[in-house]
Predict the structure.
Amino acid sequence: MRLLLIEDDDRIAGPLSEGLGRYGFTVDHVRTGAAGLAGTTTPDLVLLDLGLPDMDGLDVCRSLRARSAVPIIMITARGEEADRIVGLELGADDYLAKPFGVRELIARIRAVTRRAGAPAYSPTGPAQASQARQPAAGAQRLGPLTVNRRTREVHLDGLHVALTPREFDLLAYLAEDPGTVYSRQQIMDTVWDPHFFGPTKTLDAHVAALRRKLGDPGWITTARGVGFRFTVPGDHTAAEEAG
């Protein structure tokens, strides 16, 4: 996944680019708003500082949004509510106040790209970065189950399955790559929050609820001591996608 980092402070940009690189991201770094706007290729996501030397980051955001739907996350020392509101109203997708950790930023990137329908990214760690993958643009068919991320609806054998927002997020995340084992920590960091301090038993409760609503525990299987994987009961074929 290619990121454009518009940040004039090398003391921030250097470590940030290095940290994101360890998780498999490709980072193009520029130091001015003009350089960010002059790019000839469209990145998958823009990380935009507001305090730039040549122009206000809000103006950069406005210009980017006028010509592209690329997801934008503002990263800045400006923590006032007014700045956040203006940035979001101009078209930014998220706002992250400095200082912040790389894991928090990656969680924000995942959330923004899921909402925008951009290529999803699931990091496993600095030494092992998993490949970006593209969720279904419309309805993803997995045997008799259909998961529609655009409408946030799930159907089983043609019948609507009523899920809570968190249950849908959990199912959609696991179903992105059927058969892949996701650790409990990966799931909590992505579907909940990297700074979630509640009991992890809430994950078990949501898995149990999904199994019950889908009518077969085989949809979500347990990898003992690791986490969970999504499978189609009785079917080992690859998931089919429908546009």
Observations:
- The mean pLDDT is 81.
- The CA atoms of residues 178 and 230 lie 5 Å apart.
- The chain has eight helices and 13 strands.
